[in-house]
Design goal:
mainly alpha, Pectate Lyase C-like, 2 domains
């Protein structure tokens, strides 16, 4: 009796086709689920961002503005693609709400940076990406606490940072043209390739001598371009000779 084994082959083929079909359906389902998840995450981030923008624009409540600032910080942490936007928004917030003009930026030594402005500065100072340039031009930042802040490539031109604490700050490639650094502390700040021009440095400290806050000398001063002056009251590290204007 002659038997035909084609049925076995057809059965095997049908099984294989079924398996491949199942794999395709599984892969397709996973891809759809992934896209839906991405859309959901993107929607959540957008919602959080929109709410945070509304909060920092609140003129009646400091707590609401602080909530918005820290919400933006979380958005930047959770969504790297949105970090440039968050940096831009917070920089604009500081410039807009702390402008460097005679009406609002007084010479009162007791003047402190408003709490929401300091919070925004703290968030901006924790970024760690060179390509996210902080724009703090024309801002009133007297007595600001920028201790250890990441200000690499930042532009702080024409701002008032008198008596600001910049100890340990990363100020590599920072641009400061026409900036007021009167009485500012630069102990252990890294100033490699920083550009200071036409700045006020009266009583500024780049060395620990006579300092009450501790720390060491500013670093890489010899690699910074400093075209300011006069330097009579500046505390420089031992042996450092500032360039003449």
């Amino acid at each position: 009796m002659i038997t035909w084994d084609g049925w076995l082959k057809l059965g095997a083929m049908a099984t294989a086709i079924g398996v491949l079909g199942g794999l395709w359906l599984t892969s397709h389902s996973l891809a759809v689920a992934s896209r839906q998840s991405d859309v959901a995450v993107r929607t959540e981030i957008t919602t959080r961002y929109s709410k945070a923008i509304e909060q920092i624009g609140n003129t009646n409540s400091l707590d609401v503005r602080l909530g918005g600032i820290y919400s933006l910080a979380r958005v930047a942490h959770d969504s790297p693609d949105d970090q440039p936007t968050v940096v831009s928004v917070l920089s604009a917030f500081v410039r807009t709400h702390a402008p460097n003009n005679p009406e609002t930026c007084t010479e009162d030594l007791s003047r402190t940076v408003p709490t929401d402005i300091q919070a925004a500065l703290t968030v901006l100072g924790t970024r760690r990406h060179d390509d996210l340039r902080v724009d703090l031009r024309h801002a009133c930042l007297r007595n600001a606490d920028l201790h250890g802040a990441f200000l690499r490539t930042a532009d702080i031109s024409h701002s008032d940072l008198s008596y600001a604490v910049l100890a340990g700050a990363d100020m590599r490639q920072t641009t400061a043209q026409g900036t007021n650094f009167t009485g500012a502390y630069f102990l252990q700040a890294d100033l490699e390739n920083a550009y200071f021009a036409d700045c006020h440095l009266e009583h500024a400290r780049f060395d620990i001598a006579g300092s009450s806050i501790g720390g060491g000398s500013a670093r890489n001063l010899d690699k910074a371009a400093i075209q300011c002056g006069p330097y009579d009251s500046v505390t420089w590290p031992p042996g450092f000779v500032p360039p003449s204007r």
